Each structure stands twice: as structure tokens, then as C-alpha cells.
């Protein structure tokens, strides 16, 4: 956290490591594949695993609105279904009135399921064609995340 209490920083795209820039490019390419005829709100995500593998995802909407799946969860499900569960970083590309698009609550919880507190998943928010990137992490975006083991420990104590 900086002195203003913000738990993120804004970094020029060209100052980030080349692997992060590549991940961001992958998220912008995934965004182009978004299926969002109802909202026209395109989002792309690119998730990097600890072995360097990258899984990209886009949002996929449905005529039954509640069935829509976010880009972040698309990428995570693709990775997990390929046997990858250790993630190092995720880039998310979206445009919303000149603001960075941050993962929704469901995606934060979904990502935290695979987060290791000692090796926090870095999050890079990017506006396509922008020159800056908002850099944060899942533990910063979702403090006190729900973990089943904590509930299990609690239940073991009271029963
Ligand atoms: Zn989401």
C-alpha cells in the first residue's frame, strides 16, 4: 500500500518486463474473441502458469444472461482442465469509460482458490491501446478470501 492507502500502482506498459508485456498482448488478442452480443463489453484475460504456459480467455455471454462467464474464469477453467493449478500472473484487458476493468467478485474468489499466500498471483489491468497498466495482486483485491480449510478448522473446533 502506498501513502494514499492504495494497494496498486500504475506503471507505463513499456516499463514492464517483456514477459508481462507479452501476457498483456495475449489478453488483448483474447478480448477480440469475446462473445458478448448483449453487453458489447469485451474482456480478455491471459493467465500464466508457473511453468510459463499461458491460457487465454474471453467473456462468453448467453441469451439467459445469468449464464455469462467472465474472461478470467474462462482462462482459469481452461488451465485447470489441462492440469495446471499454479498461477503466477494474469493480465486482463477491457475498456470501461477510460477506467481499468477489475475482476468481478466471483472471479476474485475463483482466482483466490488457486492462490498461494507466499506466492501471490500478480494482476495486470490494461486498457487496449493504452500506455499504462494497473498492477496489483489477488490478495490485494480480495483480502480475507474464503478458504474451505479455514471453515473446516473452525468446524473441527466446535464439533
Ligand atoms: Zn468475473
TrEMBL record:
The keyword Metal-binding is annotated on this UniProt entry: yes
Swiss-Prot/TrEMBL cofactor(s): Zn(2+)
Active site: 72 (proton donor)
Reactions accelerated catalytically: 2'-deoxycytidine + H2O + H(+) = 2'-deoxyuridine + NH4(+); cytidine + H2O + H(+) = uridine + NH4(+)
Residues annotated as domain CMP/dCMP-type deaminase: 18-149
One GO cellular component term noted in the UniProt record for this chain: cytosol
Enzyme Commission number(s) from the entry: 3.5.4.5
Residues the entry annotates as binding substrate: 59-65
Protein name: Cytidine deaminase
Top-level taxonomy: Eukaryota, Metazoa, Ecdysozoa, Arthropoda, Hexapoda
Amino acid at each position: 500500500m502506498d501513502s494514499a492507502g492504495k494497494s496498486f500502482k500504475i506503471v507505463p506498459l513499456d516499463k514492464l518486463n517483456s514477459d508481462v508485456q507479452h501476457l498483456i498482448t495475449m489478453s488483448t488478442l483474447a478480448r477480440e474473441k469475446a462473445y458478448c452480443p448483449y453487453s458489447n463489453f469485451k474482456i480478455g484475460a491471459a493467465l500464466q502458469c508457473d511453468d510459463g504456459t499461458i491460457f487465454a480467455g474471453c467473456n462468453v455471454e448467453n441469451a439467459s444472461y445469468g449464464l455469462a462467464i467472465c474472461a478470467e474464469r474462462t482462462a482459469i477453467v481452461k488451465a485447470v482442465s489441462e492440469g495446471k493449478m499454479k498461477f503466477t500472473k494474469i493480465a486482463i484487458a477491457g475498456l470501461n469509460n477510460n477506467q481499468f476493468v477489475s475482476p468481478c467478485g466471483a472471479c476474485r474468489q475463483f482466482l483466490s482458490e488457486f492462490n498461494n499466500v507466499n506466492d501471490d498471483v500478480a494482476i495486470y489491468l490494461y486498457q487496449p491501446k493504452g500506455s499504462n497498466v494497473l498492477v496489483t495482486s489477488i490478495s490485494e483485491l480480495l483480502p480475507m478470501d474464503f478458504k474451505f480449510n479455514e471453515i473446516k478448522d473452525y468446524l473441527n473446533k466446535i464439533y
